[in-house]
Design a protein that fits this description.
16 helices; TIM Barrel; 14% strand; binds iron/sulfur cluster; 360 residues; 4-stranded parallel sheet; alpha/beta
Length: 360
C-alpha cells in the first residue's frame, strides 16, 4: 500500500514519514482531499458575516514575523477604549455582522478586568451576536501578567459572554522554529492545553498554522499531528463536547517585519499544504482557506483542494493587512457570494459554529 493510501486509512505515521506526501503531484493530493471535502459538504462553500476588531497594536511581546505591533515596524501605536470598540461592534452589527471577532496585541496598559468588562459590554449591547475573542496567546499573556491561571481566565471569559475562541497564536509548534520566530510567546504545549481546557467547558475554537516562512514541510506536518492528537481527546462528533471546528493554514505575509524571508511558497506548495491538511485532519470538521492571507483567487481554488470555507466579510482588518494582505477593508457579502458561485460552488452563509443559515 502506498503512503497516500496508508494516510487515508489512518495508519499511525510520523511527521517525517508524512512529509513525503508533498512528493505526490498536486492533482493526486487535490483529488484525495476533494473527495473527503465533497463527502462531507458536497459542493458547498461556507462563509460568514463577521467583523474583526483589533483593539490595540501596543504589545509586550516581540514576534519576528509581526507587522502589526507598534514595538515592531509599525510606527502608529493605538489603543481603543471600550466605548470605541462597542461603537464599532454596534455599527458592524447594523451592517449585518453576526460575529464580532476581537483579537488584540498584548497591551501591558490594560487590567485583567478591562477584558471582562469589554466582553460583558459587547454582549449586553448585542446579545444575539456571536463573540469570538482572545487567542490562546492572549490568554497566556494575561496569565503571565496577572498570575490568575489560564483555567480561571477561560472560565471568566465564558461567564463574560465569549462564545468561542479564534485559533491565533499557534504559529508553528516546532519548538526550534517557534523560538526563532516568536520567542517568549505562549509555548506550543500551553497553547494546546488552553484550547483543550476551553473545549472541556463545552466550547468550540479554531486552530491556525502560520506557514511559508522558515519552517519546513516536516514542521507543518508535525503541527497538524499535534492538532489531530489534541482533538482526539475531545471527540466533538460523538461526545458533543467542545473541540476544534476549523483548521486555518495562515500564509505568512512578508512585508514590514524582522523575519527576513526571501523565498515565498509557490501556489502549488500552498495548495498541497491545504490538501494534506484535509487528508491528515479528518477529525477536524472544516479546513478554512482564509482569503485575507491567500488572496481571494487562491482561496477559491483551494476549495477544489480540500478547503470548504472562506472565512467571512470581516469588514475591517489590521493584523494581516499590516504585513501586506489585501484585507484592510474586508469584502461585501454580494461580492463574496458572486465569487463563490462564479467558481462553481454553492454559497452557504453559516453562523460561527457552522450551522447553515442560508444558501445565497
Ligand atoms: S504577533 Fe501578536 S503577540 Fe506577537 S508581536 Fe505581534 S501583536 Fe504581539
Amino acid at each position: 500500500m502506498d503512503l497516500l493510501d496508508k494516510t487515508l486509512k489512518g495508519d499511525n505515521l510520523n511527521a517525517n514519514e508524512l512529509s513525503k506526501l508533498y512528493e505526490y503531484d498536486i492533482f493526486t493530493l487535490g483529488k484525495a482531499a476533494d473527495t473527503i471535502r465533497r463527502k462531507k459538504y458536497d459542493n458547498k462553500v461556507f462563509f460568514n458575516m463577521n467583523r474583526h476588531i483589533n483593539p490595540s497594536n501596543i504589545c509586550a511581546d516581540v514576534c519576528k514575523f509581526c507587522a502589526f505591533s507598534a514595538s515592531r515596524k509599525n510606527p502608529n501605536p493605538y489603543e481603543m477604549s471600550i466605548d470605541e470598540i462597542l461603537s464599532q461592534a454596534i455599527s458592524s452589527y447594523k451592517r449585518g455582522a453576526k460575529e464580532i471577532h476581537i483579537v488584540s496585541a498584548h497591551n501591558p496598559n490594560w487590567s485583567y478586568n478591562w477584558y471582562l468588562e469589554l466582553f460583558s459590554e459587547v454582549k449586553k449591547s448585542l446579545p444575539d451576536v456571536h463573540l469570538k475573542a482572545m487567542t490562546a496567546a492572549e490568554v497566556d499573556y494575561l496569565d503571565r501578567k496577572f498570575g490568575v491561571g489560564y483555567q480561571k481566565i477561560l472560565e471568566d471569559m465564558a461567564k463574560a459572554g465569549v462564545n468561542s475562541m479564534p485559533g491565533g497564536g499557534a504559529e508553528i509548534f516546532d519548538e526550534k522554529v517557534r523560538k526563532h520566530i516568536c520567542n517568549g510567546k505562549v509555548s506550543s504545549q500551553r497553547w494546546i492545553e488552553i484550547h483543550q481546557y476551553w473545549h472541556s467547558l463545552g466550547k468550540m475554537s479554531n486552530c491556525t498554522m502560520l506557514f511559508g516562512h522558515i519552517e519546513n514541510r516536516e514542521n507543518r506536518i508535525d503541527h497538524m499531528l499535534r492538532i489531530k492528537n489534541a482533538q482526539q481527546d475531545f471527540n466533538i462528533v460523538e461526545a458533543k463536547k467542545g473541540g476544534f471546528n476549523a483548521f486555518i493554514p495562515l500564509l505568512y505575509q512578508k512585508q514590514n517585519n524582522y523575519l527576513k524571508v526571501d523565498d515565498f511558497p509557490s501556489g502549488q506548495e500552498i495548495l498541497k499544504t491545504i490538501s494534506i491538511a484535509r487528508i491528515i485532519l479528518q477529525n477536524v470538521p472544516h479546513i478554512k482557506a482564509y482569503w485575507a492571507t491567500l488572496s481571494m483567487n487562491l482561496a477559491l481554488v483551494a476549495q477544489e483542494f480540500g478547503a470548504d470555507d472562506m472565512d467571512g466579510t470581516i469588514q475591517a482588518e489590521s493584523i494581516q493587512s499590516a504585513g501586506g494582505a489585501k484585507s484592510k477593508s474586508g469584502m461585501e457579502k454580494d461580492d463574496m457570494v458572486f465569487q463563490i458561485k462564479n467558481a462553481g460552488f454553492r454559497a452557504i452563509e453559516r453562523d460561527s459554529l457552522y450551522n447553515e443559515l442560508k444558501e445565497w
